[in-house]
Design goal:
The protein is of the alpha/beta class and about 375 residues long. It is built from 10 helices and 19 strands. The site of pyridoxal-5'-phosphate has 16 residues, from helix 10. This is ornithine decarboxylase.
């Protein structure tokens, strides 16, 4: 938690649940990534947190943007970004959305299938397109499995076809899964892309860009490697597979930019046990999976908590949200422990909650309003 957030919580005591995000921290994270990967161009993955305050700060820093929908493209342009700074990176787009983005000047689009290429050729003629290939997601705490990307052989054919269809076969991309804690995942993916890149060049395709996607991890409950370790591994692999003919390098960080810039301030609603002698207490908060903590699904992302009693004796807990749905149980198997003194009415902070929280909040399940947001 940054000093500015701590001060805000103490002074304002905002109603809970709410997110408090320090926009200066977003800037620091952007600069840290820039210095770890000075040769890469940063496209912020807007879906992590599309708040205009974040987008505007990043526009001011010269960031580019990875948008996943027409609505995100529009939000980024409204925040002052130039159309040339926008990549429409979802490989699954409605044709009407492609047309809308193209009409506003966007000229960079992702694809991973022939069907998408046909839409792009019709509705975004002449644009730069890049093909996303399937890579391993091992080591990612929030993996993306096989939903996006295609096999290398198909990517090769589609890149050739893109040129024939009047598009500019600009580059290749991958995404190693989010909260990727293993630098080797990038090295393996770069090796795979490097081979295809060379093949395409030899086939006469004017491919110029490699997009390394997102995934750069942040600290939740457990330590993760420093961003410089990712920068070193990535640049080592790029040098190994591309020599000194480096292509344009693009990265698409989302979580790394936004997550540790914010905390969620919540309230303990109830502390109970299922039997008198049960060692495990149930701690119910006023935010849960439907309030925005969607990434606790499968206990994948393990948030760290701060309480007013930190340092006092702790015991085992199951942590749950306030709604009447049993899937609104956050952590039952991950050995969470909280202070024995914790009681209803205590405020509790959920750390590093700036990414993938606010927009996941439901409209009003059980009548609970979406999370309030404060950008400071
Ligand atoms: C979600 C996503 C990102 C951002 O991932 P993070 O793990 O938040 O860095 C980047 N690129 C693509 C294609 C994505 O889908």
């Amino acid at each position: 938690m940054t000093p500015k957030i701590a001060q805000f919580l103490a002074d304002v005591q905002p109603a809970t649940p709410c997110l408090v995000l320090d926009v200066d921290r977003v800037e620091q994270n952007y600069r840290r990534l820039q210095s770890a990967l000075p040769l890469a161009r940063i496209y912020y993955a807007v879906k992590a947190n599309p708040a205009p305050q974040i987008l505007e700060r990043l526009v001011g820093l010269g960031s580019c943007f990875d948008a996943a929908s027409w609505e995100e493209v529009s939000a980024v342009l409204d925040a002052g970004a130039a159309a040339e700074a926008v990549s429409y990176g979802n490989t699954v787009k409605k044709e009407s959305a492609i047309r809308a983005a193209y009409a506003r000047g966007v000229r960079m689009f992702a694809f991973d299938s022939e069907g998408e290429l046909e839409k792009l050729a019709r509705s975004a003629p002449g644009s730069r397109v890049y093909c996303r290939i399937l890579v391993g997601n091992d080591g990612a705490e929030w993996p993306l499995s096989r939903k996006f990307g295609c096999e290398v052989e198909m990517a090769r054919e589609l890149m050739v076809k893109a040129g024939e269809m009047g598009l500019d076969p600009f580059g290749l991309s991958f995404h190693v899964g989010s909260q990727q804690t293993n630098t080797a995942a990038y090295e393996a993916a770069i090796a795979k892309v490097g081979m295809l890149f060379t093949d395409l060049k030899e086939a006469g395709v004017n491919v110029r860009m490699v997009n390394l996607g997102g995934g750069y991890p942040v600290r939740y409950r457990a330590e993760v490697p420093e961003i410089d370790a990712f920068g070193d591994a990535i640049m080592g692999a790029m040098a190994k597979h591309f020599g000194n003919a480096l292509p344009d390098i693009v990265v698409e960080p989302g979580r790394f930019i936004a997550a540790d810039a914010a905390v969620v301030s919540a309230e303990v609603v109830l502390v109970s046990r299922k039997a008198k002698d049960d060692p495990v207490r149930w701690v119910y908060l006023d935010i849960g999976r439907f309030g925005g903590l969607a990434e606790t699904e499968g206990e994948a992302i393990k948030y760290a908590f701060r309480t007013p009693h930190d340092g006092a004796e702790e015991g085992p807990v199951t942590i749950a949200g306030p709604t009447c749905d049993s899937t609104d149980t956050l952590y039952e198997k991950s050995n969470y422990r909280l202070p024995e003194k914790l009681q209803p009415g205590d405020r509790i902070e959920i750390l590093s909650a700036g990414a993938y929280v606010t927009t996941y909040a439901s409209q009003g399940f059980n009548g609970f309003a979406p999370l309030a947001e404060h950008y400071i």
